[in-house]
Write a sequence for this structure.
């Protein structure tokens, strides 16, 4: 088993996480010692991204077991709080539910629940590592196929939205996993990085990740993607997701739907990359059944960045009397999705195909 991942790791039984709110200008960490620490880290975006949220939630249940000295009922009460930290990313609920199911079985056998919880949280993270490697391999086949059609010397241009790299899903991400794999294989690639307002995860996190790996990329304003597609400068779109329904509807960072519409209009392939834990087989209609998180208006009214004095700070970008609405996610209907890149292979975004590939996940 592993206990060290790029976005988080264990130290002396505590969980240490990269504070993603400070990137790309400062690489700092926070130490989570209690389930309340884990809940807050998820809520305040210290950690984000569907997979890492699930991982931190799983370790949050372990921390709950430790602080309650293995009392199952106390663990359940603390875990219920972790489970409600954020509403949209299904990995959060899935991870907590899996942890509790395992602990209930362990309790019936009189096992040490602290030890069991730690082992299971590590297992969940280890499975994600293997899953992201497979997502990368399957997705890279798409990039390779396009590369063969390109004139010599021209890169495959890939557009992505938000951040779905190793900061979001250990150990290579979902949407960025095929890009990392393509880079490893020596393919000539270039990534268009949406800034992803209002929290700028593309500008702050995706650009930082790609820069760390020396992968060619260009930051663009969110509304530039459609024009690039019209100009023929986008060969492929790959995005991540926080929840996918049994019918293939996709919940992802706000702005994804507009990219999918532009891709559809310009015949650009639009793929969604995800681990199987991001499927929500209990629901069919994404627009009607997925709760979309409404976040603080301040995220729209203010921007954070590096000031002239070298310190991080915020500036207001709207009139003082202006209010704002801040939906965190939107729904891309399955009809706009070319395919789903999963650890089991590439799947059509349709209920029949999803059910056939993931029959074991259907309740």
């Amino acid at each position: 088993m592993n206990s060290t991942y790029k976005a988080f790791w264990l130290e002396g039984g505590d969980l240490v996480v990269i504070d993603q709110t400070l990137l790309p200008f400062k690489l700092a960490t926070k130490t989570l010692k209690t389930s309340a620490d884990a809940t807050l880290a998820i809520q305040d975006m210290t950690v984000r991204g569907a997979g890492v949220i699930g991982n931190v939630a799983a370790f949050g249940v372990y921390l709950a077991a430790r602080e309650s000295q293995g009392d199952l009922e106390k663990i359940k009460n603390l875990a219920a709080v972790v489970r409600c930290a954020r509403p949209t990313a299904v990995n959060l609920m899935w991870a907590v539910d899996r942890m509790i199911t395992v602990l209930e079985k362990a309790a019936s056998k009189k096992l040490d629940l602290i030890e069991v919880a730690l082992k299971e949280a590590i297992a969940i993270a280890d499975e994600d590592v293997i899953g992201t490697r497979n997502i990368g391999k399957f997705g890279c086949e798409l990039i390779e196929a396009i590369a063969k059609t390109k004139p010599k010397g021209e890169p495959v241009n890939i557009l992505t939205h938000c951040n779905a790299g190793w900061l979001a899903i250990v150990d290579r991400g979902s949407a960025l996993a095929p890009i990392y794999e393509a880079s490893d294989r020596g393919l000539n690639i270039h990534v268009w990085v949406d800034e992803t307002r209002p929290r700028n995860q593309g500008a702050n996190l995706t650009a930082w990740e790609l820069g760390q790996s020396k992968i060619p990329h260009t930051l663009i304003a969110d509304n530039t993607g459609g024009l690039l597609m019209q100009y023929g400068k986008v060969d492929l779109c790959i995005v991540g997701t926080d929840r996918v329904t049994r019918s293939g509807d996709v919940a992802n960072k706000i702005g994804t739907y507009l990219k999918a519409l532009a891709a559809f209009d310009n015949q650009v392939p639009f793929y969604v990359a995800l681990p199987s834990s991001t499927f929500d087989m209990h629901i069919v209609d994404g627009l009607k059944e997925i709760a979309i998180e409404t976040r603080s208006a301040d995220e729209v009214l203010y921007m954070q960045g590096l000031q002239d004095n070298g310190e991080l700070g915020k500036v207001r970008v709207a009139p003082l009397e202006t209010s704002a609405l801040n939906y965190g996610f939107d729904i891309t209907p399955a009809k706009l999705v070319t395919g789903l890149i999963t650890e089991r292979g590439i799947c059509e975004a349709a209920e029949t195909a999803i059910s056939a590939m993931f029959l074991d996940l259907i309740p």
